[in-house]
Design brief:
The complex is a heterodimer of chains A (241) and B (351). Chain A is an alpha/beta fold. Chain A is 37% helix and 26% strand. In chain A, the strands form two sheets. Chain A has a six-stranded mixed β-sheet, sandwiched between helices. A four-stranded antiparallel β-sheet of chain A has the order 2-1-4-5, with helices on one face. In chain A, a hairpin with a 2-residue loop joins strand 4 and strand 5. In chain A, helix 3 packs parallel to helix 6. Chain B is mainly alpha-helical and 351 residues long. Chain B has one domain: ABC transporter involved in vitamin B12 uptake, BtuC (Orthogonal Bundle), CATH 1.10.3470. In chain B, strands 1-2 form a two-stranded antiparallel sheet. In chain B, strand 1 and strand 2 form a beta hairpin. The termini of chain B are far apart. The chains are: A alpha/beta (241), B mainly alpha (351). Chains A and B meet through helix 2 and helix 3 of A and helix 9 and helix 10 of B. The complex binds adenosine-5'-diphosphate and magnesium ion. The site of magnesium ion (MG) has 4 residues of chain A, from helix 1. Chain A: Keywords: Amino-acid transport, ATP-binding, Nucleotide-binding, Transport.
Chain lengths: 241, 351
């Protein structure tokens, strides 16, 4: 069995006394899109935030064979483990270009690297190139999402955690964003994708977990799950888009 | 009021404003990165003045012992934290940063204290000695509370001021000091107005440092990383920008600015161990005008406060403090009407 890029075992996360994630076990293979789908409030954001080191958690977790329990958020970023949070967390009062340059902060001393990353991001998101000097807080929802992803890509991460990239976007843009997510996978970035929009997520993912009130209730190949009407109806409210 | 007097008051106000500007920039920087209103920066300014004065009178400044003690304690605190978190490999870095670096100017200070050395060396060693104070104060008192509310941080900052001023009384004594002017002489303006060179120096230094500030935050990636931490702490962390390093950088810069303030005003104002508080408080008015967020508005606010103070001390000297602090009230009212947009507040609570 190949070693997983990211593995979580019996991970619990609590807000005070309330457990929002209860004993989750997940394995993410290199070069794949793994998705966690589930209704609003299932605990998806909590799980991602804890995995990225923003929230305290208990259980066992490894990234590239290294124990995550003593790594800070910044240690993870230096090792190519990046989160695009649900709130995007852009630097609103700074221009698009500065947001992107800061995305490569951990590689700031390698000017050629930063230049190459910037060119790659601009090629992927030409819209950002056009809006370089615009303040991040004045961007539209779709552009903000592109900037958030582009900023995370600047450090050329190995593992990208995406929390609801489709949130607040028009359906046509959702498809576009998810198509780009697949493009990233094809370039060798492994992705943990969290989505409420199950149908769209299953379309692009390789493997899927279904989360319900803090637990994983189902897992399987994304295509199998997408074709299982019963699964869709039971856990995902039969939402078909 | 004749034109001469207006001109003299204006120049006096501008040079005072220059001082508030330098200190105000430090306030805004530290607050935006750490949410701490760093009241002790005034004390740091006073300590710089008292340290330089001690060197000039061929005595060992008490601040050497204070900085050395703080360095040892901060180093211990950092090492304990690192070992507890299982990051023992970072110990050498911590020892170098918290103990070795601050102790170098302490030793240099002991070496030159009783010697006849050029004035510029005294100033340089004073600067180097005072520079780590903010970082050390942060490591010992504020960083363990970094996630507390702004109010708690503010109360602790005030407590730290009294602590530092108390130590100042012990190590420097109650006497006031004045240092030798860095620049002697006067400059004559057209119209027969004479301006002390020291005042011109204050304005030039403030202008130059404002320019450096502008370039640092506008161009350098380190400056942008500090702004990023201020803009969205979680976002900055997700880019690998460590908040504790950003805070250390902010405190370092603020201490440097405070030290420059102390060295610039000591030749024109008698400095006591507790003189820093009033300087810090007045400079904070400029920073409050800037909403503790905007450097340009802080600069304008500080210059305004300087001119107001100089005008007030001419018209009604006894009331000048009342006049200055009364300005805060309408400013705060006006500010509270300004829309406060901060869409990222929610995720702040996650961290
Ligand atoms: N900061 C918080 N404090 C307390 N409870 C929270 C907090 N954030 C989320 N929760 C709760 O944790 C549960 C999971 O939330 P979340 O992880 O945001 O779900 P999802 O991302 O799947 O919509 C919800 O019941 C939510 O109310
Ligand atoms: Mg969520």
């Amino acid at each position: 069995m190949s070693a997983a890029l990211l593995s979580l075992e019996g991970v619990h996360v609590a807000y005070g006394k309330v457990e929002a994630v209860r004993g989750v076990t997940l394995k993410l293979d290199e070069g794949q899109i793994t998705t966690v789908i589930g209704a609003n409030g299932a605990g998806k954001t909590t799980l991602l935030s804890a995995a990225a080191g923003l929230l305290p958690w208990s259980g066992r977790a490894q990234y590239r064979g290294q124990d995550l329990s003593r790594m800070t958020v910044e240690d993870r970023v230096e090792r190519g483990f990046c989160l695009v949070p649900e709130q995007r967390a852009l630097f609103g009062d700074m221009p698009v270009l500065d947001n992107l340059l800061l995305g490569a902060f951990v590689r700031r001393h390698d000017k050629a690297f930063v230049r190459k990353s910037l060119d790659a991001v601009f090629e992927q998101f030409p819209r950002l190139a056009e809006r370089q000097t615009q303040l991040a807080q004045t961007l539209s929802g779709g552009e903000r999402q592109m900037l958030a992803i582009g900023r995370a890509l600047m450090s050329q991460p190995r593992l990208l955690l995406l929390d609801e990239p489709s949130l607040g976007l028009a359906p046509t843009i959702v498809r576009d964003v998810l198509k780009r997510v697949r493009g990233l996978r094809d370039q060798g970035v492994s992705i943990l994708l969290v989505e409420q929009n199950a149908r769209a997520a299953l379309d692009v993912a390789d493997y899927a977990y279904v989360m319900d009130t803090g637990e994983f209730v189902l897992e399987g190949a994304a295509t199998d799950m997408a074709n299982d009407e019963r699964v869709m109806a039971t856990y995902l409210g039969g939402r078909i888009e | 009021m004749s034109l001469d007097i207006v001109l003299i008051l204006l120049i006096d106000g501008l040079s005072t404003g220059a001082i508030y500007l330098l200190a105000g920039l430090g306030f805004v920087l530290v607050f935006s990165v750490t949410r701490v209103i760093f009241i002790p920066s005034g004390d740091i300014a006073a300590f710089a003045a008292l340290t330089l004065a001690a060197f000039q009178s061929r005595t060992v400044p008490g601040s050497i012992w204070l900085v050395a003690a703080m360095a040892v304690l901060a180093c211990l605190a950092e090492c304990v934290t690192l070992v507890r978190n299982g990051s023992a490999r970072r110990l050498p870095h911590a020892i170098f940063f918290y103990a070795v670096l601050p102790l170098i100017p302490c030793i240099a200070g002991l070496a030159i204290a009783k010697q006849d050395v050029p004035e510029i060396l005294r100033i340089a060693i004073t600067m180097a000695l005072i520079l780590p104070m903010g970082v050390l104060i942060d490591r010992l008192t504020l960083r363990p509370l970094a996630t507390s509310s702004t109010l708690i941080l503010f109360i602790v900052a005030i407590a730290v001021h009294f602590l530092i001023a108390g130590i100042g009384l012990i190590v420097f004594g109650p006497e006031g000091v004045r240092t030798n002017p860095i620049l002697d002489g006067v400059a004559s303006l057209p119209g027969g107005v004479v301006v002390p060179a020291q005042q011109i120096l204050m304005m030039i230094v403030a202008l130059l440092l404002s320019l450096v500030f502008y370039l640092f935050f506008g161009r350098s990636i380190t400056g942008k990383a500090l702004r990023a931490t201020a803009s969205n702490r979680v976002g900055a962390r997700l880019m690998g920008i460590r908040p504790e390093r950003a805070a250390a950088a902010a405190y370092l810069i603020a201490s440097g600015l405070a030290a420059i303030v102390g060295i610039l005003i000591a030749p024109v104002t008698t400095m006591y161990y507790d003189s820093g508080f009033m300087i810090g408080l007045k400079a904070s008015v400029g920073a409050i005008i800037g909403g503790m967020a905007s450097y340009p508005i802080t600069a304008i606010g500080s210059v305004f406060i300087g001119i107001l103070e100089s005008g007030a001390s001419f018209v009604a000297s006894d009331y000048k403090e009342i006049i200055i602090f009364s300005v805060v009230i309408p400013v705060l009212i006006w500010r509270s009407f300004a829309v406060h947009r901060d869409g990222d507040e929610e995720i702040e609570e996650l961290a």
